[in-house]
Amino acid sequence: MPEMEENPKSPLPLGEVERLVELLQESGVGEIRVRQGETEISVKARSEAPVAATQAAQVSQGFPEMVEPETSPEMDGLHSVRSPVVGTFYRAPAPGEDAYVEVGDAVSAGQTLCIVEAMKLMNEIVADVSGEVVEVLAEDAGGVEYDQPLFYLRPEAE
Amino acid sequence: MISKVLVANRGEIALRVIRACRELGVRSVAVYSTADRDSLHHELADESVCIGPPPAASSYLNIPAIISAAELTGADAVHPGYGFLAENARFAEICERVGLTFVGPSSRTIAGMGDKAKARETAAEAGVPVTPGSDGTCENAGEVKSIGAEVGYPLVIKASAGGGGKGMRVVESEAEIEDAFLGASREAGATFGDGSVYVEKYLERLRHVEMQVLADSHGTTVTFPERDCSVQRRYQKLIEESPAPGLPEDVREGLMEASERLVGALGYEGAGTVEFVYADGEFYFIEMNTRLQVEHPVTEMISGVDIVAEQLKVASGGRLEVPSESLTPDGHAIEFRINAEDPSRNFLPQAGLVEVYNPPGGPGVRVDSHLYAGYRVPPHYDSLLAKLIVHSRDREGAIRRGLRALDEFAISGMETTLPLHLAVLEDEEFLRGGVTTSFLAERSLESEGGLLRLNKVHA
Question: Which domains are seen in chain B, by residue range?
Answer without folding.
Answer: 4-103 (3.40.50.20), 132-201 (3.30.1490.20), 207-456 (3.30.470.20)
